[in-house]
Write a structure and sequence with these properties.
596 residues; alpha+beta; conserved putative lor/sdh protein from methanococcus maripaludis s2 fold; 6 domains; eight-stranded antiparallel sheet; 33% helix; elongated
Length: 596
């Protein structure tokens, strides 16, 4: 009996030890499995599917590629960390397109309660002087050679041959011989010469020498910088006619435009801080010396003038400057957000800008904004932008072209995604979905321009077509020659035919067109030419959709061009002839839109 009790005790102890060592491991394994299952479920929820041939395709579930029909494969989850409508550009593309950004709004206002004004340095008109000729004659010698030359008070400016002074000197010599008998006549003649700014010593020299001088000097009455030459050597000038304009730049003006909601924060005699890009780490103290009593009804702004000390000659007329104005408490957020006109793309119904969403990387997102008043080349933004956001101010259309190619929201495509739907994008097939093209075309309301401007634009387009045909035929030299022709046709566009927003938009688009065309014209490498043709075509599509053209044009898309990112181009025929691959894949692509 004792022996059985011992066996039972050993068995119970073994069961207890087994549970301690193996039971907890099993629970741990079960817990680990649960955690793993949760991670897999989480990953499955975030998993996106793409095409190995067309990586621009992203879908939330497996299936067929809408372009080539191949099975989709799992994409690297969150590989780029971008939101749905964000695009990322390479640093090289940023540099080539000269894409520049600006932080908008009153950034410092959130920190030290200041508002910011933008303006320009001007010469102090109160310190300007006009050097005129005091007698009639011909300028024999002009000692001022160029605008910007420094002159000193008393310096010889010009020598003038003056026939009237010759006769006056003869009168002086005659009166001098009779000064004892007719002193009044003698004094009258001397005073007459003094009115012509001849000094006592000059008059005495003429009288003592008994000789008549033909040429007389004109001396500077002030010191300063020559801001304008108003006569040239050999000119015949009348009495009182200006010869040069001299500006004393010891003090200068900074002229600003303040909006209605900013006027209450400004007053004459107020001290402000002025900064310029020329001296990034230096601030200049200025005093508000004038506030225009009338409001500009077009721009809804008031001119504000501040006077700055410029003894060191650091500030040059024409420099752009910004001013920080200390605001009253509680008014930090009242400063209006403004952007340069180059930042805004206008489709007729929508006003768009591109915002840099990541301060450390070239990541951008299209943003729809509500425009306020326009002051020169600057728009106020009523809605859509926040204080301190970074906006693309140069190369906006290039960023938009990149968004188009990546299937994100863009000026041409308000909803995002490729313009092809379903299987209509299969290689070599045409888009038969007419409603898609019509809806897409109606997104952009055209700007009204003259028939003559459209005719000139047609000429530009004809040169674009020549480039397209050269690339289709794999002819790099002809493409280069045609690009030169496109450059010349762009130069002949008459800017006077455009006004207002049409003028501003053409200026921006023309700059982008010229940059792409110039790049094509400077290389005989057809691979590089096709790379530049991607951007040229994207900008041309924007141009034709904005201004229209006097014929029907087709917008085509090749999903395999541009390193499988895809690229658009324009043609006059519906038949697909691919400029990005030429004879290698001549019929690769489809018609995605029509421009009437």
């Amino acid at each position: 009996m004792k022996k059985y009790i011992i066996y039972i005790a050993i068995l119970v102890l073994g069961l207890i030890l087994g549970y301690v060592f193996f039971g907890s491991s099993t629970d741990s394994l079960e817990n680990t499995k649960n955690v793993s299952d949760m991670s897999e479920n989480s990953a499955t929820q975030k998993q996106m599917w793409t095409c190995s041939m067309h990586p621009q395709i992203m879908q939330p579930e497996p299936g067929d590629c809408p372009i080539c029909g191949m099975d989709l494969i799992p994409a690297e989850t969150g590989a780029d960390g971008l939101a749905m409508n964000e695009i990322k550009m390479s640093e090289n593309a940023m540099a080539l397109a000269n894409i520049q950004t600006t932080i908008v709004g009153n950034v410092s206002g959130t920190d030290d309660n200041t508002m910011q004004l933008s303006g320009k340095i001007m010469a102090n008109e109160e310190a300007n002087a006009v050097q005129a000729s005091y007698f009639e004659g011909r300028i024999e010698k002009l000692n001022v050679n160029f605008t910007g030359e420094e002159v000193r008070k008393g310096q010889l400016l010009a020598t003038i041959y003056a026939p009237t002074l010759v006769a006056a000197q003869q009168e002086l010599l005659t009166a001098a011989s009779m000064k004892e008998s007719q002193p009044a006549l003698y004094n009258a003649v001397r005073n007459k010469l003094k009115l012509w700014k001849l000094s006592e010593s000059q008059i005495n020299q003429i009288e003592s020498s008994g000789k008549v001088r033909e040429n007389f000097p004109i001396y500077a009455t002030v010191s300063g910088t020559v801001s304008q030459k108003m006569a040239e050597e050999g000119d015949y000038v009348k009495q009182g006619q200006p010869i040069v304009k001299v500006s004393d730049l010891g003090t200068v003006w900074a002229m600003f435009d303040a909006y209605e909601n900013q006027i209450s924060q400004l007053k004459e005699g107020q001290k402000i801080k002025v900064a310029t890009n020329a001296y990034l780490n230096k601030e200049f103290e200025a005093t508000v010396s004038f506030i225009d009593p009338t409001l500009n009804t077009k721009s809804r702004t008031v001119a504000v003038r501040a006077t700055l000390n410029n003894k060191e000659d650091l500030l040059k007329p024409g420099m752009f400057v910004t001013a920080k104005v200390q605001m009253s408490k509680g008014n930090a957020n009242q400063s209006q957000i403004t952007v340069p006109a180059t930042a805004v793309m206008w489709t007729g119904e929508r006003s768009l800008v591109y915002v840099k969403t990541n301060p450390n990387e070239p990541v951008f997102e299209m943003r729809e904004v509500t425009l306020g008043t326009k002051n020169g080349n600057v728009y106020t933004i009523d809605e859509g932008l926040n204080n301190g956001e970074e906006v693309v101010t140069n190369g906006t259309f290039t960023v938009d072209a990149a968004a188009q190619l990546q299937g994100k929201k863009s000026m041409m495509n308000a909803s995002g995604g490729k313009t092809m739907t379903g299987h209509e994008g299969h290689l070599g097939m045409e888009n038969t979905n007419d409603s898609t093209s019509k809806d897409h075309s109606s997104m952009n309301k055209r700007l009204e321009v003259s028939k003559k401007f459209k005719e000139q634009l047609n000429t530009v387009f004809e040169n674009y077509v020549l480039i397209d045909q050269a690339l289709v035929n794999d002819d790099a030299e002809k493409a280069k020659k045609s690009a030169n022709g496109l450059q010349k046709s762009l130069e002949k566009m008459d800017m006077k035919l455009l006004k207002g927003d049409a003028h501003n938009h053409w200026m921006t688009l023309e700059k982008e067109l010229k940059a792409s065309t110039n790049a094509m014209a400077n290389t005989s490498d057809i691979k590089k030419q096709r790379g530049h043709f991607v951007h040229l075509s994207a900008h041309f599509i924007n141009t034709l959709k904005t201004f229209g053209i006097n014929e029907k044009v087709y917008v085509n898309f090749c999903p395999m061009a541009n390193n499988n990112v895809g690229a658009y181009w324009l043609s006059k025929e519906r038949e697909i002839r691919n400029p990005y691959f030429g004879k290698e894949m001549l019929d690769c692509g489809s018609v995605t839109d029509e421009i009437e």
